[in-house]
Amino acid sequence: MHTSTSARTAPAVVTSDRFRWRVVDIVVAAVLGVAIGLIFWGWNTVGGLWFAAMDGLTPGLGGIAVGIWLLGGVVGGLVIRKPGAALLVELVAAIVSALIGNVWGISTIFSGLAQGLGAELIFLAFLYLRFTLPVAMLAGVGAGVGAWVLEFFWGSSPNILKTLEFNLLYLGTLVVSGAVLAGVVGWLLVRGLAASGALSRFAAGRERRREV
Description:
By secondary structure, the chain is mainly α. The protein contains eight helices and no strands. The chain has one domain (23-211).
């Protein structure tokens, strides 16, 4: 009877341990957030110009440039693999971008919350058990949808006031950009970090070593 009870309770203990945040998880989440925030800062100019050019060509097409700003949630979720990681890394990155300075100011933080939550919900849908390229792409899509929902209802000129055609095109370009520039690029970035040995204390690093 004692052996049977232990066998039944063991999986719950393992699951609890897997979801428990370690000190190293918190530190790495902060480091990733700052690093990606610096990427955001660099992309604020390049991506901003690209966004304006595409939107000037066809309103709504600018969403194709947004994907790099969605990287935090994808990378955070793929590396740390615990509830809240995608949201935390995207939020920290957004705060860093806002503090360094950009044209959007404090609204960047709200964008980070919406985008991080969108990616987080995808990892949650897979119960934080799958971290493949398709899941990374879906997380990028989720982050893009989160950005779309926020901008639809919020801002000095919310997109709810714009045409249906604009909103559908903008959503479509956000989905594509999120899947490619956040999902694929984020997945490749994590694999690169894992190959370098920087993620040796994480499952992503151990998986990469087994592949090699």
